[in-house]
Every structure is written in structure tokens, then in C-alpha cells.
Amino acid sequence: QVQLVESGGGLVQSGESLRLSCAASGTIFRVIVVGWYRQAPGKQRESVAHVTDAGRTNYTDSVKGRFTISRDSAKNTVYLQMNNLKPEDTAVYYCRLQDLVGGDYWGQGTQVTVSS
After folding, report:
1. d(CA 38, CA 111)
2. Farthest-apart Cα atoms in the chain, separation
3. What's the pLDDT tens digit per position in 71-88?
4. Could you tell me the end-to-end alpha-carbon distance of the chain, in angstroms, rounded to an integer?
5. 77-82 and 67-72 strand pairing
6. Which residue, among 41, 97, 106, 42, has the nearest Cα to 69 in the 3D structure?
7. pLDDT tens by residue, 13-60
């Protein structure tokens, strides 16, 4: 089993920054991809960014140029640096890990609130 714990959320003003962390623990097989998702009230969960085992990254259009996903393999941690935050970025942010043997794990989420 793999456990994912997100941290770093909070309340910020428009234009400010936050860095989210997703720490993985447990029996981790080869990771295929780790991603950040978010869900705003009344909306479906959406993909924000992900990083593959090869280091390739991908972002949803609305965060390109503002968010950066990175990983520290030694710490089993993935980060999401969020700059120039906007009120529309307000959501619960979730981390997701998918591994080579079909494992698909989610964290409990961390709240990000951006005031205008």
C-alpha cells in the first residue's frame, strides 16, 4: 500500500504563491506518473499537472507559465509550485500516484483559497 500526504495549502491573496508537497510512503513500486488534481466547489475534479517517471511534465492550459511540478525522488515527494495565484485557482488539491503494477493512489487533499 502507498500513502500520500499533501501539505502546503492555505489562504493567500491574488498574485501570491504557494508550494504544495505530496509525500509518498509505504511499498512503492516503480512509479509511472504522479499528478496534481483539483476540485472546486460544484465542479468536477480536473488534472492540473503531472510528471512521468521519465521526468516529462504536462500542465493544463490555465496554469501554464504559473505552476511548476517537480519531484525529489530521494524524498519520495512531488511538489507543485504555484505562482501568481488567481481566485479561480481556489480548490481542494489532490495528489495522485500511479505505478507500474496498476496501483492508483490518492491523497486526502489540501485546500487552496485565493482571495481577490
Report:
1. 9
2. 43
3. 998 999 999 999 999 999
4. 40
5. antiparallel
6. 97
7. 999 999 999 999 998 888 889 999 999 999 999 999 999 999 999 999
Q: Element (H or E) spanning 27, and its range?
A: none
Q: SS3 helix, strand, coil % of the chain, rounded to 5?
A: 10, 60, 35
CA 75 to chain CA mean position, Å:
16
3-state secondary structure of 41: coil
C-alpha to C-alpha distance for 79 and 89, rounded to whole angstroms: 16
What b/e sequence results for 30-50 when a residue is b if at least 16 CB atoms lie within 10 Å of its CB, and e otherwise?
A: ebbebbbbbeeeeeeeeebbb
24 burial via Cβ count (<10 Å: 0-12, 13-18, 19+): buried
64 has pLDDT over 90: yes
